[in-house]
Design a protein that fits this description.
Elements: H1 3-8, E1 22-23, H2 27-36, E2 42-47, H3 52-66, E3 73-78, H4 83-93, E4 101-106, E5 109-115
Length: about 120
């Protein structure tokens, strides 16, 4: 990785690194995620791609769980691209919308949620 890439965030050092995320991009994806919560605990990370704070929190969370065994299946929602789905999550799970936000779900119900700097792998 070049000096400028390190400073300005160029290419990833490990392009074959496996993503920890399953992406929610439709109501069908959300429905499947909620159905999965009856078999395994899941967590949805709602991220605003235009917000510096959200980007920082996301990177910190990913770094925190990078070398651990997450206790939940991890789902990612770009809430700017999929705002209606973000609103549906808030309505269906009775959780006030925040960004960034991590919502932990078991058996179809939100059991924990946090936002901003309170987001941590410990919630899982």
């Amino acid at each position: 990785m070049s000096f400028f890439d390190k400073i300005f965030g160029g290419k990833e050092e490990n392009p074959e690194k496996k993503s920890i995320w399953k992406y929610i991009e439709s109501e069908e994806d959300l429905k499947k995620a909620i159905e999965n919560s009856f078999n395994n605990k899941i967590a949805i990370f709602k991220h605003s791609t235009s917000c510096f704070i959200s980007k920082t929190v996301l990177k910190n969370f990913e770094r925190e769980i990078e070398n651990s065994d997450p206790k939940a299946e991890l789902y990612f929602l770009d809430l700017l691209a999929h705002r209606p789905i973000s609103n549906k999550i808030a309505d269906d799970l009775d959780v006030t919308h925040q960004s960034p936000q991590l919502i932990v779900i078991e058996n179809g119900k939100a059991i924990n949620n946090s936002s901003h700097q309170n987001i941590s792998a410990d919630q899982l």
